[in-house]
Design brief:
By secondary structure, this protein is an alpha+beta fold. The chain contains 7 helices and 8 strands.
Length: 290
């Protein structure tokens, strides 16, 4: 089993006093050692730091974020790894249960047929309504049905993989169904959306075949343990590795449901480079205390 974990400082971190911030930053350095030990045991497949891009749409606190993909055999193994994490009680955690793309593609294509059959069920008027709704959206992209479906290369990314020498830009994109999916869309609109989601698999296959996407996953239906939330399952997560923002804009712009999804972007950084920045941050905090 694989789980992606995103680790972020608490929301109130900016209001902490210096001593409390230093304590957490010292734990950050312990965390790097902890992750390296797990990686040596084969229980961490990927680890990234993140660059200092926060948000273009709203002012946010410039706190750290780190991304880890864990591999484990039992849920108890995962619980033990989390219990040993030095940042566990001084951070926020997001956990995404990862699913192979091939498995998700089969389910998404099957979902389209099931939705159509359940919606129409011999009702000619419903078929006409579905046709009218579908006609309001673009046709299938030209690459649909022409791609070789293959799993992404998903190279193991751990330490000393700093890409700064060739200035590659690595962007992790998360996408889900929009908020309107629950409560505002009827079954006709959802059926059209399911068809468009199926096109995403052709798109991501194209990005993989073109060497632009290096990692990609779907997600299992785990949502949130503390809050009731909309069913936000959508496309999943993909890592684009490109030369510039312009190349990323062009690649992401081809996404067939980009305009019909909610997405977030994280600019990744090599874990060794992140450790160096974290040490600089710790030294800066200690200097302010003097």
């Amino acid at each position: 089993m694989k789980v992606m974990v995103l680790i972020t400082a608490p929301e109130d971190y900016i209001s902490w006093d210096l001593k409390k911030k230093i304590d957490r930053q010292e734990r950050v350095m312990e965390w790097h050692t902890h992750i390296r030990e797990l990686a040596a045991e084969g229980r961490v497949l990927n680890v990234w730091g993140t660059r200092s891009f926060t948000s273009r749409v709203r002012p946010v606190h410039a706190v750290d974020k780190r991304v880890v993909v864990y591999s484990f055999d039992t849920f108890s193994d995962f619980d033990r790894m989390m219990a040993m994490d030095p940042l566990r009680d001084v951070s926020r955690y997001q956990t995404i249960a990862l699913k192979p793309l091939s498995e998700d593609r089969k389910e998404d294509i099957g979902r389209v047929e099931v939705l159509r059959a359940n919606l129409i069920s011999g009702r000619a008027e419903t078929q006409s309504e579905l046709n009218r709704e579908r006609a309001r959206f673009y046709l299938a992209p030209s690459y649909v049905g022409k791609q070789q479906y293959t799993d992404p290369p998903s190279p193991t990314i751990l330490f000393d993989n700093d890409q700064s020498a060739d200035e590659k830009l690595e962007v992790l994109v998360f996408s889900t169904n929009p908020k309107e999916f629950v409560g505002q869309w009827d079954d006709v609109r959802k059926t059209v959306h399911a068809e468009m989601v199926s096109y995403w698999h052709d798109y991501i296959a194209k990005m993989i075949n073109d060497g632009i996407v290096t990692h990609a996953w779907a997600a299992h239906d785990f949502l949130d343990r503390d809050y009731y939330t909309e069913h936000e399952k959508g496309k999943g997560a993909a890592i684009y590795r490109v030369d510039s923002w312009e190349e990323f804009d062009e690649a992401f712009g081809e996404d067939p449901i980009r305009d019909y999804s909610s997405s977030s972007t994280v600019v990744l950084k090599d874990a060794t480079a992140q450790m160096e920045i974290d040490q600089i941050a710790l030294d800066a905090l200690k200097n302010r205390l003097r």
